[in-house]
Each structure stands twice: as structure tokens, then as C-alpha cells.
Design goal:
With 165 residues, this protein is α+β, with helices and mostly antiparallel strands. It contains 5 helices and 7 strands. The structure holds coenzyme A (COA).
Length: 165
């Protein structure tokens, strides 16, 4: 019996029940189910899931505005964290952004979410500002950008994150 590696693929409406369940486990202010259905119909969106053994273990998405790709969300099932799945998802989001002609990626992260911020820094994001009381519980968001992701240096970094030379 071969070992099946986790597979990253495009999110479909059939995935949304599992995705919304994972969203509720991962965020204090989760998106409602209907929000995901709507997102999948809107232009400039690209949502992916990572599936392992027939189960959705993570997901993420971007929204492209002009040449900036906004990372809308990313989450991995709690018991599957720190196994590289968030990295695989982020690689897929970068690939989707680049395919659509993005030059920069941006996102917001809770000021206290050092784990996620560390993951983003590994992809070349750096803090560029703060949105005070951005979240429902009044926590600040840190705004991060990864600039010029279409340039050679950033592509080399992405290939390193992908685990390829
Ligand atoms: C953020 C999240 C998606 C990361 O997923 P993941 O699968 O654990 O990420 P990876 O295993 O690919 O981590 C890659 C690297 O990022 C850093 N990192 C990730 N999570 C970390 C944590 N909790 N603490 C410190 N560093 C962390 C580490 O450098 C890690 O490498 P290492 O495990 O070799 O040390 C996951 O923790 C999650 O779903 N969190 C809840 C939802 C959330 O906060 N999403 C982000 C919203 S902005």
C-alpha cells in the first residue's frame, strides 16, 4: 500500500461544509457557510483545499485586485498543524496569484498570531502597518506585504518553500 501525500486542489462547493467546520474550529469570528459559497462565485477569487486520506485538512484563498493578491484566509486542522500543510497551501496561493499576473501579495494577521506571522515571513511577507481594532474582539491587525513576487528572487524563495531546488 503506497503512502498518499496530501493533495492541494481547487475548492468546490462540495467542500464547503467541511471547510466551514474547520473555519469554526480555527477562528473566533468564523465566516458563515454562505460566505464561502458566495466567494466561489466571485471574480478574481482562487480558493484551494488540502485533502489527505479523503478528508479536508486545510484551505486558503486569495482575491486578486489589479496586481495585488489579498490572502483572504488560510487554516489547517488543529491536529495537523506544524506538518508543512500551511506551507503547501501558501505555495498554492502564490502559484495561483502568479498565474493571474499578481506582483504583490498582502494579508492581515492578528497582532497576537505570531505562528502565522512566522509562516508569512518565511514567504517574504513583512509588516507594513497596523489596523487598530480590526477584529470583532478589538484586536489590532498587522498588515503584511510580500512585494515583487513575480521577480527572480521571490520565485527562488517560492521554489525553496515548495521543496524544490
Ligand atoms: C497559521 C496556520 C495556517 C499554519 O499552518 P501549519 O500547517 O501549522 O504551517 P506549517 O506547518 O507549514 O508551518 C511552517 C512554519 O511556520 C512557522 N509556524 C507555523 N505555525 C507556528 C506556530 N504556531 N508557532 C510558531 N511558528 C509557527 C514555523 O516556522 C513553521 O515551521 P516549523 O514547523 O518547521 O517550525 C495554522 O496554524 C492555522 O490554521 N492556524 C489557525 C488559523 C489561523 O490563524 N490562520 C491565519 C490567519 S491570518
Amino acid at each position: 500500500m503506497g503512502v498518499k501525500t496530501p493533495l492541494v486542489r481547487a475548492m468546490t462547493p462540495a467542500d464547503i461544509a467541511a471547510v466551514a467546520e474547520l473555519e469554526a474550529e480555527s477562528f473566533a469570528d468564523p465566516w458563515p457557510l454562505a460566505f464561502f459559497f458566495e466567494e466561489l462565485t466571485l471574480p478574481g477569487r482562487e480558493y484551494v483545499v488540502v485533502e489527505d486520506g479523503g478528508r479536508i485538512v486545510g484551505y486558503g484563498g486569495i482575491m486578486l485586485i489589479d496586481r495585488d493578491a489579498h490572502v483572504m484566509t488560510i487554516a489547517v486542522r488543529p491536529e495537523r498543524r506544524r506538518q508543512g500543510l500551511g506551507t503547501q497551501l501558501m505555495v498554492a496561493l502564490f502559484d495561483a496569484a502568479l498565474e493571474r499576473g499578481a506582483r504583490n501579495l498582502t494579508l492581515e494577521v492578528r497582532a497576537s498570531n505570531h505562528g502565522a506571522a512566522t509562516l508569512y515571513q518565511r514567504f517574504g511577507f513583512s509588516a507594513a502597518g497596523r489596523r487598530p481594532r480590526y477584529y470583532q474582539d478589538d484586536e489590532d491587525a498587522i498588515i503584511m506585504w510580500a512585494l515583487d513576487v513575480d521577480q527572480a528572487e521571490a520565485r527562488r524563495r517560492l521554489d525553496l518553500m515548495r521543496g524544490q531546488p
